[in-house]
Write a structure and sequence with these properties.
The protein is of the alpha/beta class and 281 residues long. It has ten helices and 15 strands. It has a single domain, classed as Ribonuclease Z/Hydroxyacylglutathione hydrolase-like (Metallo-beta-lactamase, Chain A, 4-Layer Sandwich), CATH 3.60.15. Bound molecules: zinc ion.
């Protein structure tokens, strides 16, 4: 055997050993990445797909610079956006994003509510963005990854804006993440009935900032999350997370991450393995 081959053997063994420990880093394709931004009291997450596309889901209340956070986490200049519902803690920070980035496609429920929502919508329509009102059953592909809308149903009459939130499943190969906006227990029950085991997810973006009006035990028993992410401000005036929701999440066996404790929370996956990290501990 030539000398050089002998020298390369330990290196190959080292690489194999490293890749066994860090499979995502060794994958040929870039991983799927989700960053749950710490926006204080509100919700905002960016999904970076392996094919280079990006989707911003909500944009916080406007107190956090989402444009900067997007740029720092690798957003391309052209992105798509999804607004789960038109409350200010979810879309208050969307207007600067719409102004600074080229928006490819915008998704929301189309339920009118607030001046801020109308301002965003007018801006989007003025620049001819592709705009879709979403309803359950619709699917959108981002390369190999897919988003399936699970709520609201066609003809759904929301008793409350929170409960009108877009709920969707993100799937990339075997990896799944369920985004729930601020949907409440009544719609969780509806989804359990309609979707059953299809709600099973590796990652759960916990509904309504850990409020007791969401995270029912029946819902969590079908979602069976490995990781649950709660987006909320420290010492918020609502008392989130409520202890009933927290107990239900703990009993579900999920490992809980909170933006008030952990800062920005990043999840990466090659479609099989999952790594989760946070800016603060
Ligand atoms: Zn909210």
């Amino acid at each position: 055997m030539p000398k050089r081959s002998l020298r390369t053997i330990p290196l190959i063994i080292l690489i194999i050993a490293l890749c066994a420990r860090l499979p995502i880093a060794c994958a040929k394709e870039p991983p799927l990445k989700i960053v749950f931004f710490d926006v204080g009291q509100g919700d905002s997450a960016a999904i970076y797909f392996p094919n280079g596309e990006a989707l911003l889901v909500d944009a916080g209340a406007g107190k956090t610079d989402i444009v900067r956070k997007l740029r720092e986490t690798g957003a391309p200049q052209s992105i798509s956006i999804l607004m789960t519902h038109p409350h200010s803690d979810h879309i208050g920070g969307m207007l600067p994003v719409v102004k600074e980035f080229n928006i490819i496609h915008a998704y929301d429920t189309g339920y009118p509510y607030s001046r801020i929502y109308e301002n965003i919508l007018n801006r989007l329509l003025a620049v001819n963005v592709q705009y879709s009102v979403v309803r359950s059953g619709q699917k959108f592909n981002f390369g190999e990854a897919q988003i399936t809308i699970l709520h609201p149903d066609e003809g759904f009459e929301p008793h409350d804006i929170n409960d009108s939130s877009v709920v969707f499943m993100l799937r990339y190969r075997d990896f799944t993440a369920l985004f729930t906006g601020d949907v409440e227990k009544v719609s969780e029950a509806r989804m359990v009935k309609k979707w059953g085991k299809l709600l099973d997810a590796d990652i759960l973006k916990v509904g309504h900032h850990g409020s007791r009006y969401s995270s029912s035990r029946d819902f969590l028993s079908v979602v069976r999350p490995q990781f649950a992410v709660i987006s909320l401000a420290i010492d918020n005036s609502y008392g989130y997370p409520h202890k009933q929701a927290l107990a239900a999440l703990e009993d579900s066996g999920a490992e809980i991450y909170r933006t008030d404790w952990h800062g920005d929370i990043t999840v990466i996956s090659d479609g099989r393995h999952i790594e989760i990290s946070a800016t603060e501990r």
